[in-house]
Amino acid sequence: MEVPLLDLKEQYANIREEVLTATEEMFDSQRFILGPKVEELEERIARYCQCGYAVGVSSGTDALLISLMTAGVAHGDLVMTTPYTFFATAGAVARVGARPVFVDIDKGTYNMNPDELDLVFSQMDEKSRSRVKAIIPVHLFGQCVDMDPVMTFAEVNGLVVIEDAAQAIGAEYGSGNEGSQKRTGSMGHYGCFSFYPTKNLGAFGEAGMVTTNDKAVYKNLKTMRNHGDVARYDHRFVGGNFRMAALQAAVLLVKLNYLDEWIKKRRENANLYRKLFQEAELVDVSLPLEKEKRHIYNQFVINVKEQRDELKRYLNARGIGSEVFYPVPLHMQECFEYLGYKKEDFPVSEEASKRTLALPIYPELRPEQIHYVVDMIGKFLRQR
Ligand SMILES: *Cc1c(COP(=O)(O)O)cnc(C)c1O
User: Does 167 contact ligand 1 (Cβ within 6 A)?
Assistant: First the structure.
């Protein structure tokens, strides 16, 4: 049986006619950049994320970059984030001339550990502490960071919070009563989203979005998106070309109608995995900890005690796709050598890099495929 890590063809087959109609309208209009489709998407994403405003941009990476630039983070500043994330999170910090300061993750959720945030900050000298300008909590794999302590810490220390919600559109924070949850992108000062094709809401190319509740920030983001021009040829500051393509907005407007249904299916798949893993009684595998009320499972990541890479190869030989996110934590990347970190500085991140494995979880996955994946993992673990 073939079980790819992700299969977008089936999703497309289900919405093909709608997408083709929407894109045809867009082609007929010959308005390729920004325009009414992008504005409509911005309004709908703002509403979906329970935010005041949203600004369509060219990618998730650019969403981070434009947020940092708009927040005025620049040369000499420090930005706190985790080393266990996609490269763009820390890459964007370095690109504005600031310095990433890493904070280890929580063992259960792989998200920023708020206690570590406090600890790292308290261990800095006075001068370094005054240089910290922002925090980037990353809602990894589709689950929200424990945001209350992060926001409190930011308020106390006067820091900007930029949520990296690239993997977590529609994820909710809070485990209390129904309706008390908050959506990603609505809690920090900026929320950064990616519509890269492998995300839960994927475009037909590169695209991203920044959300905010602050009208002044919203206006500045729009200016920054277009080279900092407040009016035509009137540039008050240096921005960039971070504009979103109308084609991507047209596709995303169709897909957004299905997002909650797709999230529901991903969650059902996660539940089936849980049931089957439990029945199989595999002691050397632990399943993702679901701490917040709505995990959207951009990835379903298991933790394998030993021989993770051997398991990956074993599954691959049996038609099952899987992936390691992320094999090298960012403090161990060559380009960040100058930050002066060494091996064992972030033990939880390093342990995760050695043990985690993402399994297929996409909405169109069939129950028999999930059965097959768990069967094969069981077979591998029992034969060792
Ligand atoms: C995908 C991703 C990004 C970057 O988004 P792109 O649209 O690929 O530029 C940033 N951060 C995280 C955590 C991501 O997963």
Answer: yes
